[in-house]
Automatic annotation (TrEMBL):
<feature type="binding site">
    <location>
        <position position="17"/>
    </location>
    <ligand>
        <name>substrate</name>
    </ligand>
</feature>
<dbReference type="InterPro" id="IPR024694">
    <property type="entry name" value="PurE_prokaryotes"/>
</dbReference>
<dbReference type="GO" id="GO:0006189">
    <property type="term" value="P:'de novo' IMP biosynthetic process"/>
</dbReference>
<feature type="binding site">
    <location>
        <position position="14"/>
    </location>
    <ligand>
        <name>substrate</name>
    </ligand>
</feature>
<keyword id="KW-0658">Purine biosynthesis</keyword>
<comment type="function">
    <text>Catalyzes the conversion of N5-carboxyaminoimidazole ribonucleotide (N5-CAIR) to 4-carboxy-5-aminoimidazole ribonucleotide (CAIR).</text>
</comment>
<dbReference type="InterPro" id="IPR000031">
    <property type="entry name" value="PurE_dom"/>
</dbReference>
<feature type="domain" description="PurE">
    <location>
        <begin position="6"/>
        <end position="157"/>
    </location>
</feature>
<protein>
    <recommendedName>
        <fullName>N5-carboxyaminoimidazole ribonucleotide mutase</fullName>
        <ecNumber>5.4.99.18</ecNumber>
    </recommendedName>
</protein>
<dbReference type="Pfam" id="PF00731">
    <property type="entry name" value="AIRC"/>
</dbReference>
<dbReference type="GO" id="GO:0034023">
    <property type="term" value="F:5-(carboxyamino)imidazole ribonucleotide mutase activity"/>
</dbReference>
<keyword id="KW-0413">Isomerase</keyword>
<dbReference type="InterPro" id="IPR033747">
    <property type="entry name" value="PurE_ClassI"/>
</dbReference>
<comment type="pathway">
    <text>Purine metabolism; IMP biosynthesis via de novo pathway; 5-amino-1-(5-phospho-D-ribosyl)imidazole-4-carboxylate from 5-amino-1-(5-phospho-D-ribosyl)imidazole (N5-CAIR route): step 2/2.</text>
</comment>
<comment type="similarity">
    <text>Belongs to the AIR carboxylase family. Class I subfamily.</text>
</comment>
<feature type="binding site">
    <location>
        <position position="44"/>
    </location>
    <ligand>
        <name>substrate</name>
    </ligand>
</feature>
Length: 166
């Protein structure tokens, strides 16, 4: 039986993170990967976070992309309660440009892994691409789409710079 449940969960600590995390969603859309995006805050909705993390696998998720800013505990806390792969995206904060977010996510203690990406849009896009690479291990069609996406990106790079806005 074909499983129609979205394989990727995109979670974020706040509505304000969506502007960044939408880049992960857009990338998954481009690759034809379904996802569900939710607001799950480690601090403001801790019970929701626990319920999500403990139930994520039963919900059919295979990869979790978790974005948060500032005291960004969400990716690590979720990773502590699920054995699914968790990719953490540090959202760029206003006060410290996202360095606080990065440090909050990246330095996990041994035993609880979070694959930490770059701050901001690049991290969100690459989290989606990493999720795609994980899913493509067992999905030949997706593997082809992923390769096509990369070839198209390469083909879109001009040989010479221009004064015209792209
Ligand atoms: C974190 O606090 C969120 O991930 C967000 O990046 C940051 C600020 O949240 P808001 O005050 O904008 O809701 O929990």
């Amino acid at each position: 039986m074909h499983d129609e449940r979205p394989p990727v969960a995109i979670i974020m600590g706040s509505q304000s993170d969506w502007e960044t995390m939408k880049n992960a969603a857009d990338t998954l859309d481009a690759l034809g990967i379904s996802y569900e995006a939710r607001i799950v805050s480690a601090h403001r909705t801790p019970d929701r976070m626990v319920a999500f993390a403990k139930g994520a696998r039963d919900e059919g998720f295979q990869v979790v992309i978790a974005g948060a800013g500032g005291a960004a505990h969400l990716p690590g806390m979720v990773a502590s309660m699920t054995s699914l792969p968790v990719f953490g995206v540090p959202v760029q904060s206003k006060t410290m440009s996202g360095l606080d977010s990065l440090y909050s996510i990246v330095q996990m203690p041994a035993g609880i892994p979070v694959g930490t990406l770059a701050i901001g849009r690049a991290g969100a896009v690459n989290a989606a691409l990493l999720a795609a690479r994980v899913l493509a291990l067992h999905d030949e069609d997706l593997f082809e789409r992923l390769e096509d996406w990369t070839f198209a990106q390469t083909a879109a790079v001009a040989d010479y710079p221009t004064d015209e806005a792209p």
